[in-house]
Design a protein that fits this description.
This protein has 8 helices and no strands. The protein is an all-alpha fold. Helix 3 runs antiparallel to helix 5. The chain starts with a helix and ends with a helix.
Length: 235
């Protein structure tokens, strides 16, 4: 599997996505200060506390990486399993299920790590500057930061299921735009559910577990579908 992932990296460089992640990180730093400043100027009560600012930034981050993940799935999976590319792909002397699984693991690993890493600088820099020259009239505690970090990890993990669902829809329709649009919509809906449940660990963990189960089922279904396509091609 690792060999297949290395081969995939040789075929499709991730340089563009590393650059996009760096840009997203800088954008999130600016975004978190923008939200805090606007809340102060406009006297927006909901965003005059750190928990909502951090949570909203994390959800926006998830949406950004959902779109990035959808683009990667479109390029690495959907475009290679439609039209003449399918015939070329099935001519390789490699198990198609293993090839697809390698692509999925590669994209999931990258987007999960990239989202987590990109959330660290905004959280860290904003927290440090708030202890020096605060914008928000709220108390910044260690417990709050740990809770936000935990929620960010959950969002990063759930991101994979959301994007796999969007991939399945795009795969069925053979449509790149459908994958990106559904990824954005599903992320926005899930983000709202997380925001509404913030502070209730039982509900958030239940949502995370449910997403993992759904994601696992869809991955298995996709692998079986590719196997059937391979069988039909051979017959």
């Amino acid at each position: 599997m690792l060999k297949l992932m290395r081969l995939e990296l040789q075929r499709n460089k991730l340089t563009t996505y590393f650059t996009a992640s760096a840009i997203a990180c800088v954008g999130l730093i600016g975004f978190i200060y923008f939200v805090a400043y606007v809340a102060q100027v406009e006297n927006e009560v909901d965003f005059q506390n750190y928990s909502n600012i951090f949570l909203f930034t994390s959800v926006v981050s998830m949406i950004v990486y959902a779109i990035m993940s959808a683009v990667m799935y479109s390029r690495y999976v959907i475009e290679e399993y439609r039209g003449k590319m399918t015939l070329l792909l099935f001519s390789y002397p490699i198990s198609r299920k293993k090839m697809l699984l390698a692509k999925l693991i590669l994209i999931m690993s990258f987007t999960t790590l990239a989202m987590i890493v990109s959330n660290i600088p905004p959280l860290l820099i904003f927290s440090i500057t708030e202890t020096i020259s605060p914008i928000v009239s709220d108390t910044l505690s260690t417990g709050l930061i740990l809770n936000v970090v935990k929620t960010t990890f959950i969002l990063a993990i759930s991101l994979n299921t959301i994007c796999v669902i969007a991939l399945r829809i795009g795969f069925a329709k053979k449509s790149v735009p459908a994958t990106i649009v559904f990824s954005f919509v599903l992320c926005a809906l899930y983000g709202n559910a997380i925001i509404a449940s913030f502070g209730n660990d039982a509900i958030i963990m239940a949502l995370c577990i449910l997403m993992l189960i759904i994601g696992g089922a869809i991955v298995l279904e996709l692998l079986n579908k590719v196997h059937r396509m391979e069988f039909e091609e051979q017959t």
